[in-house]
């Protein structure tokens, strides 16, 4: 397992930053990819957001204070970059964020990187009906199996609020799946 403290020291060191950053990417790339993918849906969009996320991490690592785990800090950046991406896309296309999500889900069937079946597609449609915060909480818990403590660090929300959001999201998804 990666020693986070040592990695952070190397990331902040001018002489070791690039090597340490390559190590950081190889360690966290897949986890961050799937986190972003659950938010933006499209593989191509995910690649763009992931690249922006790593650029932001590289440029701002010196601001990392160590108040949370490194991966919580990176997940927060990835989450914010994903939301920003959706907001910009909605503005560019002059549609709502919900319509951007709907468009992305409708495009999943033609996405060669989407390996889900009819049930997965229906689940994605159900998730898209949730408010943004509930989507994030559901995706982090259901797909990534993150602990509420880690989600609390990433989303800067209490564990109790996250548990309530997840519970409500599950009920809404169940209702959607039953009725559609």
Automatic annotation (TrEMBL):
<dbReference type="InterPro" id="IPR013249">
    <property type="entry name" value="RNA_pol_sigma70_r4_t2"/>
</dbReference>
<feature type="domain" description="RNA polymerase sigma-70 region 2">
    <location>
        <begin position="24"/>
        <end position="91"/>
    </location>
</feature>
<dbReference type="InterPro" id="IPR007627">
    <property type="entry name" value="RNA_pol_sigma70_r2"/>
</dbReference>
<dbReference type="InterPro" id="IPR013324">
    <property type="entry name" value="RNA_pol_sigma_r3/r4-like"/>
</dbReference>
<keyword id="KW-0804">Transcription</keyword>
<dbReference type="Pfam" id="PF08281">
    <property type="entry name" value="Sigma70_r4_2"/>
</dbReference>
<keyword id="KW-0805">Transcription regulation</keyword>
<dbReference type="InterPro" id="IPR013325">
    <property type="entry name" value="RNA_pol_sigma_r2"/>
</dbReference>
<feature type="domain" description="RNA polymerase sigma factor 70 region 4 type 2">
    <location>
        <begin position="121"/>
        <end position="173"/>
    </location>
</feature>
<protein>
    <submittedName>
        <fullName>Sigma-70 family RNA polymerase sigma factor</fullName>
    </submittedName>
</protein>
<dbReference type="InterPro" id="IPR036388">
    <property type="entry name" value="WH-like_DNA-bd_sf"/>
</dbReference>
<keyword id="KW-0731">Sigma factor</keyword>
<comment type="similarity">
    <text>Belongs to the sigma-70 factor family. ECF subfamily.</text>
</comment>
<dbReference type="Pfam" id="PF04542">
    <property type="entry name" value="Sigma70_r2"/>
</dbReference>
<dbReference type="InterPro" id="IPR039425">
    <property type="entry name" value="RNA_pol_sigma-70-like"/>
</dbReference>
<dbReference type="InterPro" id="IPR014284">
    <property type="entry name" value="RNA_pol_sigma-70_dom"/>
</dbReference>
């Amino acid at each position: 397992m990666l020693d986070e403290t040592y990695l952070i020291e190397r990331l902040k060191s001018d002489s070791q930053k690039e090597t340490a950053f390559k190590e950081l990417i190889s360690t966290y790339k897949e986890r961050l990819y799937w986190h972003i993918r659950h938010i933006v849906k499209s593989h191509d969009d995910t690649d763009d957001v992931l690249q922006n996320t790593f650029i932001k991490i590289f440029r701002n690592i010196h601001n990392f204070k160590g108040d949370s785990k490194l991966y919580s800090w990176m997940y927060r950046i990835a989450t914010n970059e994903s939301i920003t991406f959706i907001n910009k896309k909605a503005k560019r296309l002059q549609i709502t964020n919900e319509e951007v999500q709907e468009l992305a889900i409708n495009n999943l069937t033609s996405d060669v990187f989407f390996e889900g079946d009819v049930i997965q597609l229906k689940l994605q449609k159900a998730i898209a009906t949730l408010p943004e915060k509930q989507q994030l909480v559901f995706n982090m818990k259901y797909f990534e199996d993150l602990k509420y403590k880690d989600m609390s660090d990433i989303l800067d929300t209490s564990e109790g609020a996250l548990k309530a959001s997840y519970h409500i999201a599950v009920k809404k998804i169940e209702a959607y799946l039953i009725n559609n």
